[in-house]
Amino acid sequence: MKLIILSAPSGAGKSSIIHQLMTQNLNLEFSISACNRAPRTGEIDGKDYYFLSTEAFQNHIKNDAFIEWEEVYENHYYGTLKTELDRISKNGNHVIFDIDIAGGLNLKKIFGDKALALFIMPPSVEELERRLYARATDAPENIAKRVAKAKLEISQAHLFDHVVVNEHLEAAVKQTALLIKDFLNIK
Ligand code: 5GP
After folding, report:
1. Which of 90, 84, 87, 94 is nearest to 26 (CA)?
2. Which of 40, 78, 85 best tests ligand 1's pocket when mutated (most atoms within 8 Å of CB)?
């Protein structure tokens, strides 16, 4: 099993890219993270995330059940359960992660050459902010936090194996798919 890591500032479009990659025959299975935030409209427990209570999340930390976890935003925890990777490995698939920058770099450190770490870059911070407002899933004060965090994250892009600029979704998907095929030796 190989690992494909997609990291990006919030709003850079990585979920859309992952969604499209899943429709191609790349043998990729999405790593379902655990988190303690509430589901957004349309999100399904056990599909988008394992939605846990804060207490349950903290118990998993105590029991060393995560490969990695982060407090991505204040009081908002996200992590990858070890059991999730076992599940995907048993299915015979490669795993694709939607994960924040710190988490992505952690996984790359753990898995080295078995992992391809891709940074999805927004065309600009202004465009990122515009997309977050258009998405309308976050309150304005949360958007401000996400934008502030994005600026720090962008400064770490050079630590990834490749940077893909998501100006136009289709082109970004194409470029990402090519990088993945190359990494997985798919013709
Ligand atoms: P959202 O609340 O918008 O779904 O996700 C917030 C951020 O948490 C995103 O950048 C997402 O990639 C990140 N994230 C999701 N799952 C994980 C995980 O398992 N570990 C870490 N470190 N970050 C995650």
Report:
1. 94
2. 78
* Tens digit of each residue's pLDDT (9 = 90 or more) over 111-167: 999 999 999 999 999 999 999 999 888 889 989 998 999 999 999 999 999 999 999
Is the CB–ligand 1 distance for residue 79 below 6 Å?
Answer: yes
Which CATH number does the domain housing residue 141 bear? 3.40.50.300
From the CA of 8, give the closest atom in ligand 1.
10
Question: Tens digits of per-residue pLDDT, 30-45?
Answer: 999 999 999 999 999 9
Q: Whole-model pTM?
A: 0.94
- Evaluate: CB of 153 within 6 angstroms of ligand 1: no
Distance of CA 172 to the CA centre of its chain: 15
User: In total, how many domains does the chain have?
Assistant: 1
Amino acid at 46: G
Give the whole-angstrom CA distance, residue 128 versus residue 78. Answer: 22
Section 104-110 average pLDDT: 98
Q: Is 166 in the pocket of ligand 1 (CB under 6 A)?
A: no
Range of the domain at 178: 3-184
